[in-house]
Structure to design on (417 residues):
């Protein structure tokens, strides 16, 4: 295990035991013999960050773009806090089984806690992933903090089109040096998905239950972190998972037959730009219209209203919304309910908002609507084109068929059907 400040001073090496716990062993005066050297690392120059290479079995190459988060974090033993302190290269030490699938290259792009992610980071990550996709990688994984993981997965889904393989985003709820860590299994499943899944989509791979029985691959534009700390925090919303990896067999099982298939590598499209001047405004009793006016006055180009129910805000806000639209701001409506979709034709308030120029986000998550609007505004200059594309299904961010996914058929208790 990586040494801590205390262990490095005291001449102590920390060893991860098979039961998941760590033990510190003094190496002062000890004789150390190398029994077997499993792999070698070679430094490779890379514009986006330090890249390390790990020789593996077979002829395939797995590229891991590390951006930070708990999956590359460890516990500070002196304080008990978790901080991003591991290099991306250390991930291979935790999951040696990945070398059985192929060689590994690891790009240490960022060491960010995901709450510090910005749209500019999405652009850099998209470009880094694109470089690996066109450069011949057989599988691409992005390690990321869980707090804003669904935002980045949505961003990559729009920025990288016609994917020749899955792009798998993975995080962990518990750091790698805890016995209950989910990082190793999540990362191992990500490699299996990246190499073997038939779809060409951006997905999030995380635990599907609190036990180590399966990992779900959920569509990146349809997944949300639903719990602050559980290992199975990520669940699809208004959708079903694309696939699962079952353990201990390490078997990939497809769940959905509706997915974007892999395309030819030469057909890959990169559109990595995002508009920073987009905001989400959550509806609540007494929402002050001046908040909308403020955003317009500050030059914001897009506003996502996270409305109540079928897509409502209080009527006092409608004049401000109308003014925003008239001044060229694209205003869209998502619902703050977890499941279901916007339908602004049912009640008077919704119809007034439609007449004011608000675009319905259908069953898109508010965060997906935010990312999509940001992406459209940065890549298309014509506002009429932006509005037309916003309501169009591009990467299955909209589920055209209305089904009840609150108690989806694929999920029963702690097992998948």
């Amino acid at each position: 295990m990586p040494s801590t400040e205390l262990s490095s001073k005291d001449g102590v090496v920390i060893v991860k035991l098979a039961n998941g716990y760590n033990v510190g062993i003094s190496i002062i005066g000890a004789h150390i013999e190398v029994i077997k050297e499993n792999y070698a690392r070679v430094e490779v120059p890379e514009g986006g960050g330090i890249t390390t290479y790990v020789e593996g079995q077979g002829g395939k190459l797995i590229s891991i773009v590390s951006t930070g988060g708990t999956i590359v974090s460890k516990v500070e033993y002196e304080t008990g806090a978790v901080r991003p302190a591991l290099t991306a290269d250390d991930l291979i030490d935790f999951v040696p089984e990945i070398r059985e699938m192929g060689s590994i290259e690891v790009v240490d792009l960022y060491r960010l806690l995901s709450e510090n992610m910005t749209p500019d980071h999405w652009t850099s990550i998209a470009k880094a992933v694109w470089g690996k996709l066109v450069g011949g990688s057989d599988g691409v994984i992005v390690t990321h903090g869980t707090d804003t993981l669904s935002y980045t997965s949505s961003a990559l889904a729009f920025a990288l089109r016609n994917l020749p393989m899955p792009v798998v985003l993975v995080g962990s709820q518990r750091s790698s040096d805890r016995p209950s860590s989910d990082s190793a299994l999540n990362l191992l499943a990500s490699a299996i998905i990246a190499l073997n899944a038939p779809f060409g989509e951006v997905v999030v791979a995380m635990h599907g239950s609190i036990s180590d029985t399966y990992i779900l691959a959920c569509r990146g534009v349809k997944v949300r972190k639903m719990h602050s700390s559980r290992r199975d925090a990520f669940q699809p919303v208004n959708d079903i998972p694309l696939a699962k990896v079952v353990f201990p067999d390490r078997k990939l099982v497809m769940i959905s037959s509706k997915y974007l298939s892999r395309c030819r590598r030469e057909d890959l499209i990169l559109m990595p730009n995002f508009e920073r001047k987009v905001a989400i405004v959550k509806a609540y009793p007494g929402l002050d219209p001046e908040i909308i006016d403020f955003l317009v006055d500050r030059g914001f180009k897009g506003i996502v209203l996270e409305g109540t129910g079928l897509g409502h805000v209080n009527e006092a806000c409608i004049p401000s919304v109308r003014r925003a639209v008239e001044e060229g701001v694209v205003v869209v409506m998502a619902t703050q309910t977890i499941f279901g979709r916007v339908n602004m034709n049912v009640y008077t308030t919704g119809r007034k908002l439609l007449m004011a120029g608000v675009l319905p986000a259908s069953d898109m998550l508010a965060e997906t609507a935010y990312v999509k609007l940001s992406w459209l505004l940065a890549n298309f200059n014509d506002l009429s084109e932006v509005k037309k594309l916003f309501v169009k299904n591009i990467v299955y961010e909209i589920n055209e068929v209305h089904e009840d996914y609150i108690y989806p058929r694929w999920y029963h208790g702690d097992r998948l059907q």
Remarks:
- The chain is about 25% helix and 25% strand.
- The CA atoms of residues 65 and 375 lie 22 Å apart.
- The two ends are 38 Å apart (CA to CA).
- Residues 37-47, 412-417 have pLDDT under 50 and may be disordered.
